[in-house]
Amino acid sequence: MSSTNPEEFKRFHFRLIRGAPNGYIPFYFPLEVQGKDPREGISWKNNRKTFREAYYLMSQGFNIGIAATSKDPLVIVDIDDLSQVPEIKPTLQTTSRKRIGLHNYFFSFDGTAKKNIAAKDAGEVRANWQYVVAPGSFVPCSPEEIDRIPEHERVNAGRYTLNNELPVSEIAFEELPDVYKARYTEIIHDEVEAVTKRIERKFTGRQLNGIHKSALWDLDITDVSGVSDTQGRRVPMPPEIHGSESGHNCSVSKGLLHCWRHNTYHNSFSYLAMLAGVMSCERAGRPHGGHYFGADPQDGETVFKVWEYAKNQRLISQDDPIPQRALTYYAISKGICKKENLVNDGRLPPIIYQIALLVAKQEGLNFGRK
Length: 370
Ligand SMILES: [Zn+2]
What we know:
Helix content: 25-40%
Bound molecules: zinc ion
Protein backbone atom coordinates (compact mmCIF):
# COMPACT_ATOMS: atom_id res chain seq x y z
CA MET A 1 0.00 0.00 0.00
CA SER A 2 1.29 3.44 -0.83
CA SER A 3 0.51 6.31 1.52
CA THR A 4 0.43 9.34 -0.71
CA ASN A 5 -1.43 12.40 0.53
CA PRO A 6 -3.02 14.35 -2.33
CA GLU A 7 -4.44 16.94 0.09
CA GLU A 8 -0.92 17.83 1.22
CA PHE A 9 0.05 18.17 -2.45
CA LYS A 10 -2.92 20.48 -3.02
CA ARG A 11 -1.96 22.72 -0.07
CA PHE A 12 1.57 22.91 -1.43
CA HIS A 13 0.39 23.75 -4.95
CA PHE A 14 -1.78 26.66 -3.84
CA ARG A 15 0.96 28.08 -1.63
CA LEU A 16 3.44 27.80 -4.47
CA ILE A 17 1.30 29.65 -6.99
CA ARG A 18 0.02 32.25 -4.50
CA GLY A 19 2.04 35.34 -5.34
CA ALA A 20 3.86 33.58 -8.19
CA PRO A 21 4.72 35.73 -11.20
CA ASN A 22 2.10 35.93 -13.93
CA GLY A 23 2.12 32.97 -16.24
CA TYR A 24 4.05 30.67 -13.90
CA ILE A 25 2.69 27.11 -14.05
CA PRO A 26 4.51 24.48 -11.96
CA PHE A 27 6.10 21.66 -13.98
CA TYR A 28 4.71 18.45 -12.44
CA PHE A 29 5.22 14.90 -13.69
CA PRO A 30 4.56 11.41 -12.30
CA LEU A 31 7.14 9.32 -10.44
CA GLU A 32 7.04 5.61 -9.64
CA VAL A 33 4.71 4.42 -6.88
CA GLN A 34 6.72 4.69 -3.62
CA GLY A 35 9.75 5.80 -5.63
CA LYS A 36 11.76 8.87 -6.57
CA ASP A 37 12.42 7.93 -10.20
CA PRO A 38 10.26 9.12 -13.09
CA ARG A 39 7.80 6.59 -14.47
CA GLU A 40 9.45 4.33 -17.00
CA GLY A 41 8.86 4.34 -20.73
CA ILE A 42 8.78 8.10 -21.32
CA SER A 43 11.19 10.92 -20.64
CA TRP A 44 9.86 13.00 -17.74
CA LYS A 45 10.59 16.15 -19.70
CA ASN A 46 7.90 15.01 -22.16
CA ASN A 47 5.46 13.86 -19.50
CA ARG A 48 4.33 17.15 -17.97
CA LYS A 49 1.01 17.08 -16.10
CA THR A 50 -1.37 19.82 -15.01
CA PHE A 51 -2.05 20.22 -11.31
CA ARG A 52 -5.39 18.42 -11.70
CA GLU A 53 -3.80 15.49 -13.54
CA ALA A 54 -0.98 15.27 -11.00
CA TYR A 55 -3.46 15.42 -8.11
CA TYR A 56 -5.44 12.57 -9.67
CA LEU A 57 -2.28 10.48 -10.23
CA MET A 58 -1.28 11.01 -6.62
CA SER A 59 -4.71 9.85 -5.48
CA GLN A 60 -3.94 6.67 -7.47
CA GLY A 61 -0.75 6.19 -5.45
CA PHE A 62 1.83 7.79 -7.76
CA ASN A 63 4.41 10.15 -6.39
CA ILE A 64 4.81 13.50 -8.14
CA GLY A 65 7.98 15.33 -9.12
CA ILE A 66 8.26 19.10 -9.44
CA ALA A 67 10.93 20.48 -11.73
CA ALA A 68 12.57 23.85 -12.09
CA THR A 69 13.07 24.33 -15.84
CA SER A 70 15.00 26.72 -18.05
CA LYS A 71 11.65 28.26 -19.00
CA ASP A 72 10.40 29.18 -15.51
CA PRO A 73 11.77 31.27 -12.62
CA LEU A 74 11.68 28.47 -10.01
CA VAL A 75 14.81 27.73 -7.95
CA ILE A 76 14.75 24.88 -5.43
CA VAL A 77 17.45 24.95 -2.77
CA ASP A 78 17.82 21.43 -1.46
CA ILE A 79 19.55 21.21 1.93
CA ASP A 80 20.85 17.76 2.86
CA ASP A 81 23.13 18.76 5.73
CA LEU A 82 21.80 21.52 7.98
CA SER A 83 25.16 21.89 9.75
CA GLN A 84 26.67 23.20 6.49
CA VAL A 85 23.72 25.47 5.74
CA PRO A 86 22.92 27.14 9.06
CA GLU A 87 20.89 29.93 7.50
CA ILE A 88 18.65 30.47 4.50
CA LYS A 89 16.27 33.24 3.49
CA PRO A 90 12.78 32.35 4.83
CA THR A 91 10.46 31.00 2.13
CA LEU A 92 8.05 28.17 1.37
CA GLN A 93 9.79 25.06 2.68
CA THR A 94 9.10 21.33 2.65
CA THR A 95 10.67 18.39 4.48
CA SER A 96 11.66 15.20 2.72
CA ARG A 97 11.18 11.58 3.63
CA LYS A 98 14.11 11.11 6.00
CA ARG A 99 12.81 14.15 7.90
CA ILE A 100 16.26 15.73 7.79
CA GLY A 101 16.49 17.31 4.33
CA LEU A 102 14.72 20.55 3.41
CA HIS A 103 13.50 21.85 0.06
CA ASN A 104 13.30 25.65 -0.14
CA TYR A 105 11.28 27.12 -3.01
CA PHE A 106 12.26 30.48 -4.51
CA PHE A 107 11.66 32.55 -7.60
CA SER A 108 14.59 34.14 -9.40
CA PHE A 109 13.46 37.28 -11.18
CA ASP A 110 16.85 38.63 -12.18
CA GLY A 111 18.01 35.16 -13.26
CA THR A 112 21.23 35.28 -11.20
CA ALA A 113 20.25 32.35 -8.95
CA LYS A 114 18.98 30.26 -11.87
CA LYS A 115 21.92 27.85 -11.68
CA ASN A 116 22.34 24.15 -11.03
CA ILE A 117 24.87 23.79 -8.23
CA ALA A 118 25.69 20.44 -6.67
CA ALA A 119 27.41 21.33 -3.40
CA LYS A 120 28.50 17.78 -2.53
CA ASP A 121 26.90 16.51 0.70
CA ALA A 122 25.62 19.96 1.72
CA GLY A 123 22.86 19.89 -0.89
CA GLU A 124 21.98 21.28 -4.32
CA VAL A 125 20.54 24.28 -6.04
CA ARG A 126 18.15 22.94 -8.67
CA ALA A 127 17.15 25.48 -11.29
CA ASN A 128 17.44 24.09 -14.83
CA TRP A 129 15.67 20.85 -15.66
CA GLN A 130 16.20 19.33 -12.25
CA TYR A 131 13.51 18.10 -9.93
CA VAL A 132 12.63 17.16 -6.37
CA VAL A 133 9.85 14.98 -5.01
CA ALA A 134 6.76 17.06 -4.27
CA PRO A 135 4.93 17.10 -0.89
CA GLY A 136 2.22 14.49 -0.55
CA SER A 137 4.54 11.87 -2.04
CA PHE A 138 5.67 8.85 -0.03
CA VAL A 139 8.84 6.73 -0.25
CA PRO A 140 9.22 4.15 2.54
CA CYS A 141 12.28 4.36 4.83
CA SER A 142 14.49 1.42 5.71
CA PRO A 143 14.77 0.48 9.44
CA GLU A 144 18.23 2.12 9.53
CA GLU A 145 16.81 5.32 8.05
CA ILE A 146 13.99 5.31 10.60
CA ASP A 147 16.55 4.94 13.42
CA ARG A 148 18.18 8.20 12.33
CA ILE A 149 14.90 10.16 12.39
CA PRO A 150 14.27 12.18 15.58
CA GLU A 151 11.74 10.26 17.67
CA HIS A 152 8.93 12.84 17.52
CA GLU A 153 9.19 12.82 13.70
CA ARG A 154 9.03 9.04 13.17
CA VAL A 155 5.29 9.06 12.48
CA ASN A 156 6.16 10.99 9.33
CA ALA A 157 8.89 8.62 8.10
CA GLY A 158 8.76 8.36 4.32
CA ARG A 159 6.50 11.38 3.86
CA TYR A 160 7.21 14.59 1.95
CA THR A 161 5.39 17.37 3.78
CA LEU A 162 5.00 21.13 4.03
CA ASN A 163 7.17 22.68 6.69
CA ASN A 164 5.69 26.17 6.91
CA GLU A 165 3.02 28.45 5.47
CA LEU A 166 5.30 31.11 4.03
CA PRO A 167 4.86 32.44 0.51
CA VAL A 168 7.65 31.85 -2.02
CA SER A 169 10.39 34.49 -1.67
CA GLU A 170 12.49 35.97 -4.42
CA ILE A 171 16.18 35.10 -4.41
CA ALA A 172 19.28 36.46 -6.12
CA PHE A 173 22.60 34.62 -6.40
CA GLU A 174 24.15 36.80 -3.68
CA GLU A 175 21.47 35.65 -1.22
CA LEU A 176 22.19 31.94 -1.61
CA PRO A 177 23.81 30.29 1.43
CA ASP A 178 27.63 30.52 1.31
CA VAL A 179 28.29 26.84 0.68
CA TYR A 180 26.46 26.99 -2.69
CA LYS A 181 28.13 30.24 -3.75
CA ALA A 182 31.57 28.84 -2.93
CA ARG A 183 30.85 25.68 -4.85
CA TYR A 184 29.65 27.70 -7.86
CA THR A 185 32.92 29.65 -7.92
CA GLU A 186 34.75 26.32 -8.02
CA ILE A 187 32.57 25.00 -10.82
CA ILE A 188 33.23 28.07 -12.97
CA HIS A 189 36.94 27.93 -12.27
CA ASP A 190 37.05 24.27 -13.37
CA GLU A 191 34.98 24.99 -16.47
CA VAL A 192 37.21 27.85 -17.56
CA GLU A 193 40.26 25.66 -17.12
CA ALA A 194 38.70 22.87 -19.14
CA VAL A 195 37.71 25.31 -21.89
CA THR A 196 41.21 26.75 -22.06
CA LYS A 197 42.62 23.23 -22.42
CA ARG A 198 40.14 22.37 -25.15
CA ILE A 199 40.92 25.52 -27.10
CA GLU A 200 44.65 24.77 -26.84
CA ARG A 201 44.00 21.27 -28.15
CA LYS A 202 41.98 22.64 -31.01
CA PHE A 203 44.74 24.97 -32.15
CA THR A 204 47.17 22.09 -32.23
CA GLY A 205 44.88 20.62 -34.86
CA ARG A 206 44.05 17.32 -33.19
CA GLN A 207 40.30 17.63 -33.79
CA LEU A 208 39.26 15.12 -36.44
CA ASN A 209 37.09 16.21 -39.33
CA GLY A 210 33.54 14.94 -39.26
CA ILE A 211 33.75 13.80 -35.66
CA HIS A 212 30.62 15.81 -34.88
CA LYS A 213 28.20 14.37 -37.42
CA SER A 214 24.65 14.25 -36.11
CA ALA A 215 22.70 11.03 -36.60
CA LEU A 216 19.80 13.28 -37.69
CA TRP A 217 21.16 13.10 -41.24
CA ASP A 218 21.11 9.28 -41.22
CA LEU A 219 17.39 8.96 -40.48
CA ASP A 220 15.27 7.84 -43.41
CA ILE A 221 11.61 8.45 -44.13
CA THR A 222 10.59 5.07 -42.64
CA ASP A 223 12.50 5.82 -39.40
CA VAL A 224 10.56 9.02 -38.87
CA SER A 225 7.12 8.16 -40.32
CA GLY A 226 6.89 4.45 -39.55
CA VAL A 227 5.67 3.91 -43.15
CA SER A 228 7.72 1.53 -45.36
CA ASP A 229 7.72 1.53 -49.17
CA THR A 230 4.06 1.10 -50.08
CA GLN A 231 4.90 -0.82 -53.31
CA GLY A 232 2.79 1.44 -55.49
CA ARG A 233 -0.24 1.35 -53.20
CA ARG A 234 -1.68 4.29 -51.33
CA VAL A 235 -2.32 4.35 -47.59
CA PRO A 236 -3.79 6.90 -45.15
CA MET A 237 -1.46 9.75 -44.12
CA PRO A 238 -0.15 9.17 -40.55
CA PRO A 239 -2.64 11.09 -38.37
CA GLU A 240 0.08 13.11 -36.61
CA ILE A 241 0.61 14.87 -39.99
CA HIS A 242 -3.00 15.37 -41.02
CA GLY A 243 -6.20 13.51 -41.74
CA SER A 244 -7.20 11.38 -44.68
CA GLU A 245 -10.86 11.44 -45.71
CA SER A 246 -10.12 9.19 -48.67
CA GLY A 247 -7.92 6.76 -46.69
CA HIS A 248 -5.36 6.78 -49.50
CA ASN A 249 -3.63 10.15 -49.66
CA CYS A 250 -0.13 8.88 -48.90
CA SER A 251 2.47 6.63 -50.48
CA VAL A 252 6.17 5.94 -49.96
CA SER A 253 8.54 5.21 -52.82
CA LYS A 254 12.25 5.75 -53.49
CA GLY A 255 12.80 7.05 -49.98
CA LEU A 256 10.21 9.83 -50.26
CA LEU A 257 6.74 10.11 -48.79
CA HIS A 258 4.11 11.59 -51.08
CA CYS A 259 1.14 13.56 -49.90
CA TRP A 260 -1.57 13.34 -52.55
CA ARG A 261 -3.74 15.87 -50.78
CA HIS A 262 -1.16 18.65 -50.95
CA ASN A 263 0.80 17.23 -53.90
CA THR A 264 4.09 17.33 -52.07
CA TYR A 265 7.05 15.01 -51.44
CA HIS A 266 8.72 14.64 -48.06
CA ASN A 267 12.15 13.50 -47.05
CA SER A 268 12.94 12.62 -43.42
CA PHE A 269 13.94 16.22 -42.67
CA SER A 270 10.76 17.87 -43.99
CA TYR A 271 8.70 15.16 -42.30
CA LEU A 272 10.37 15.91 -38.95
CA ALA A 273 9.84 19.64 -39.53
CA MET A 274 6.10 18.90 -39.69
CA LEU A 275 6.20 16.73 -36.57
CA ALA A 276 8.19 19.40 -34.74
CA GLY A 277 5.48 21.92 -35.62
CA VAL A 278 7.85 24.11 -37.66
CA MET A 279 5.83 23.91 -40.90
CA SER A 280 2.67 22.41 -42.31
CA CYS A 281 2.57 19.70 -44.98
CA GLU A 282 2.11 22.05 -47.90
CA ARG A 283 4.94 24.36 -46.81
CA ALA A 284 7.48 21.80 -45.59
CA GLY A 285 7.43 19.48 -48.59
CA ARG A 286 8.69 19.79 -52.15
CA PRO A 287 5.82 20.42 -54.57
CA HIS A 288 5.32 17.73 -57.23
CA GLY A 289 7.29 19.10 -60.17
CA GLY A 290 9.14 21.55 -57.93
CA HIS A 291 12.83 21.62 -57.09
CA TYR A 292 13.14 22.58 -53.43
CA PHE A 293 11.84 21.43 -50.10
CA GLY A 294 10.23 24.14 -47.98
CA ALA A 295 11.97 22.74 -44.90
CA ASP A 296 15.50 23.98 -45.52
CA PRO A 297 18.38 21.95 -43.99
CA GLN A 298 20.58 25.03 -44.51
CA ASP A 299 18.40 27.09 -42.16
CA GLY A 300 19.81 27.06 -38.63
CA GLU A 301 16.53 27.68 -36.83
CA THR A 302 14.75 24.87 -38.66
CA VAL A 303 17.67 22.49 -38.09
CA PHE A 304 17.76 23.43 -34.40
CA LYS A 305 14.05 22.72 -33.89
CA VAL A 306 14.11 19.49 -35.90
CA TRP A 307 17.23 18.24 -34.11
CA GLU A 308 15.76 19.11 -30.69
CA TYR A 309 12.52 17.32 -31.58
CA ALA A 310 14.34 14.21 -32.83
CA LYS A 311 16.29 14.09 -29.59
CA ASN A 312 13.23 14.55 -27.37
CA GLN A 313 11.53 11.74 -29.25
CA ARG A 314 14.65 9.59 -28.88
CA LEU A 315 14.99 9.13 -32.63
CA ILE A 316 18.64 10.06 -32.06
CA SER A 317 20.74 9.59 -28.94
CA GLN A 318 20.82 12.01 -26.01
CA ASP A 319 24.47 12.84 -26.69
CA ASP A 320 24.01 13.33 -30.41
CA PRO A 321 26.21 16.24 -31.57
CA ILE A 322 24.16 19.29 -32.51
CA PRO A 323 24.53 20.16 -36.22
CA GLN A 324 26.82 23.11 -36.82
CA ARG A 325 24.11 25.34 -38.34
CA ALA A 326 21.83 24.69 -35.37
CA LEU A 327 24.61 25.61 -32.97
CA THR A 328 25.27 28.83 -34.87
CA TYR A 329 21.57 29.67 -34.72
CA TYR A 330 21.54 28.95 -30.97
CA ALA A 331 24.57 31.19 -30.32
CA ILE A 332 23.03 34.07 -32.28
CA SER A 333 19.60 33.68 -30.68
CA LYS A 334 21.24 33.78 -27.23
CA GLY A 335 23.17 36.92 -28.12
CA ILE A 336 26.52 35.11 -27.72
CA CYS A 337 27.56 35.88 -31.28
CA LYS A 338 26.62 38.34 -34.02
CA LYS A 339 26.13 37.31 -37.64
CA GLU A 340 29.04 39.49 -38.78
CA ASN A 341 31.42 37.61 -36.44
CA LEU A 342 30.86 34.22 -38.06
CA VAL A 343 33.88 32.66 -39.75
CA ASN A 344 34.13 30.37 -42.79
CA ASP A 345 30.82 28.87 -43.92
CA GLY A 346 28.82 30.29 -41.02
CA ARG A 347 30.86 28.71 -38.24
CA LEU A 348 31.42 30.17 -34.79
CA PRO A 349 34.88 31.46 -33.85
CA PRO A 350 36.56 28.88 -31.52
CA ILE A 351 36.12 30.84 -28.29
CA ILE A 352 32.49 31.72 -29.05
CA TYR A 353 31.94 28.05 -29.86
CA GLN A 354 33.09 27.04 -26.38
CA ILE A 355 31.01 29.77 -24.72
CA ALA A 356 27.91 28.59 -26.60
CA LEU A 357 28.49 25.06 -25.28
CA LEU A 358 28.90 26.41 -21.74
CA VAL A 359 25.68 28.42 -21.93
CA ALA A 360 23.83 25.38 -23.24
CA LYS A 361 25.20 23.29 -20.41
CA GLN A 362 24.02 25.89 -17.91
CA GLU A 363 20.57 25.59 -19.48
CA GLY A 364 20.63 21.84 -18.96
CA LEU A 365 20.98 21.11 -22.70
CA ASN A 366 23.30 18.40 -24.00
CA PHE A 367 24.81 19.52 -27.31
CA GLY A 368 26.99 16.40 -27.60
CA ARG A 369 30.11 18.38 -28.47
CA LYS A 370 33.32 19.23 -26.70
ZN1 LIG B 1 -0.35 16.88 -47.00
